[in-house]
Design a protein that fits this description.
The complex is a heterodimer of chains A (170) and B (167). With 170 residues, chain A is of the alpha+beta class. Chain A is built from 7 helices and 5 strands. Classes of the chains: A alpha+beta (170), B mainly beta (167).
Chain lengths: 170, 167
C-alpha cells in the first residue's frame, strides 16, 4: 500500500510494536518532535485506518497551541453527511479518475452537491477544470469557497489571528 | 485492527465545531481552556416490550428515536468579536459567527446548528490512528456563571442523530 510505503519513509518505526504487560500497540506517531512531520504521519495513519475499512474519507489535521505552549494535534476524517454511505463516497472517489469531460456527468456530482449542500450546477461549474486524479470533493469545496469569497463584499471582516490553527496536509 | 487497550483521559480530547462547510472547511472552532468535562447521553432508540397478558414474550421492537444530547463547560474568555469566532458568539450566533457561519440545517433554517466533534488522541499512544466522535446538526444553549473562573456551561442537542458517527 502506498500509504504504508510513505509512512516507512517519513517515520520508519511507525509500525514497530510497543508496550509490554497489559499494553499492546504500535509506535504510530509517538516520539515525533517536528510538527510538520507529525502532522503528515497522523494524516497518513488516519487515511490508512479508513481505507482499511473501505471508506475513502478526506482527512484534516487540526492543531492548536495550548497555554502550556505545547502543540496539540489530531487527525480526523471528513465524513460525508447523512445520506451518503461509505460505499457511495468510494464510488464517487473512483469516478474522479475518469477523464475530465466524463467526470462532471458522473453520479459523483450529485453526491458532492448534497455533501456541500449546493446545487448540482454549481458543482459542475466548480469541477469543470478539475485536474486528472484530483479528489473531486476537495476540489469542488475549494473552488466554491473561492467563488463565495470572490462574491463577498470587500468590507467583509477577515479573521484576525485565529485562535484555532488548522493544518491540512495534502 | 485490535481494540486499543490504552485508557484515554481528558488530556487526549479536543472539542470542535464546524459550520455547513464541514471540518475541512473555513469555519471551524476548537474549544480551548476548558476543564475537560464533555459528556454525551445516547438513549438511542426506545426498545418496546410487548406483553402477553402481563408476561414478556421476547418480542422486542424499536420505538422512537431519542436525539443525542450532552454538555460541557468552558472558561469564559471573550464575549464577541467581528473578526474571529468566539465560543460566546457561537452560542449566540453573533459577531463573526453570525456574519460568516452557515447553519448545517441550511442558510435559511430557523434553528442555527453546527456539526460537533470530539477528537481523541490515539496515534501517540500506540493506537493505529486518532479517534473521533461526531454528532451532526447540533444546536446549543448555555448558562453563564460568575466566579473564579467565570464559566460557561454549554448544552447541546442533535437534530439528526440518535447515535454518533464514530471514526
Amino acid at each position: 500500500m502506498r500509504i504504508e510505503a510513505e509512512l516507512d519513509q517519513v517515520h520508519p518505526p511507525w509500525r514497530q510494536p510497543v508496550g509490554g504487560k497489559g499494553r499492546i500497540g504500535i509506535v504510530g506517531s509517538a516520539g515525533i518532535e517536528d510538527d510538520a512531520r507529525k502532522a503528515r504521519v497522523k494524516w497518513l495513519l488516519q487515511r490508512r485506518k479508513h481505507l482499511y475499512d473501505g471508506k475513502d474519507y478526506d482527512v484534516v489535521v487540526t492543531s492548536y497551541k495550548g497555554r502550556d505552549g505545547r502543540m496539540k494535534m489530531v487527525a480526523h476524517p471528513v465524513i460525508p453527511k447523512n445520506e451518503h454511505t461509505p460505499e457511495s463516497i468510494s464510488e464517487a472517489a473512483k469516478r474522479s479518475w475518469l477523464r475530465p469531460e466524463e467526470r462532471v456527468y458522473q453520479a459523483s456530482v450529485p453526491v458532492i452537491a448534497n455533501t456541500l449542500r449546493v446545487s448540482v450546477e454549481r458543482v459542475e461549474r466548480a469541477l469543470i477544470d478539475a485536474p486528472e486524479g484530483a479528489n473531486l470533493l476537495t476540489w469542488a469545496r475549494r473552488k466554491l469557497v473561492e467563488e463565495d469569497n470572490g462574491a463577498s463584499s470587500p468590507a467583509a471582516p477577515t479573521p484576525k489571528g485565529p485562535r484555532t490553527r488548522k493544518v491540512t496536509v495534502a | 485492527m485490535a481494540e486499543s487497550n490504552v485508557v484515554k483521559t481528558k488530556r487526549d480530547n479536543t472539542i470542535i465545531f464546524a459550520d455547513n462547510s464541514g471540518f475541512a472547511g473555513a469555519n471551524i472552532y476548537t474549544v480551548s481552556l476548558e476543564p475537560g468535562d464533555w459528556n454525551m447521553t445516547a438513549a438511542l432508540r426506545a426498545r418496546n416490550n410487548f406483553l402477553d397478558r402481563g408476561s414478556l414474550v421476547s418480542s422486542v421492537r424499536y420505538g422512537d428515536d431519542t436525539a443525542l444530547t450532552g454538555s460541557f463547560s468552558a472558561y469564559f474568555r471573550d464575549a464577541t468579536d467581528a473578526g474571529a469566532a468566539t465560543l460566546f458568539d457561537l452560542l449566540n450566533w453573533s459577531g463573526y459567527v453570525g456574519t460568516n457561519w452557515v447553519s448545517t440545517l441550511g442558510a435559511n433554517a430557523e434553528v442555527k446548528a453546527v456539526d460537533h466533534r470530539v477528537t481523541i488522541e490515539g496515534s501517540d499512544h500506540g493506537d493505529g490512528a486518532d479517534h473521533s466522535i461526531t454528532i451532526q446538526d447540533v444546536s446549543l444553549d448555555y448558562s453563564w456563571a460568575d466566579g473564579d473562573p467565570v464559566t460557561v456551561s454549554v448544552n447541546w442537542q442533535s437534530h439528526t442523530d440518535y447515535k454518533p458517527t464514530l471514526a
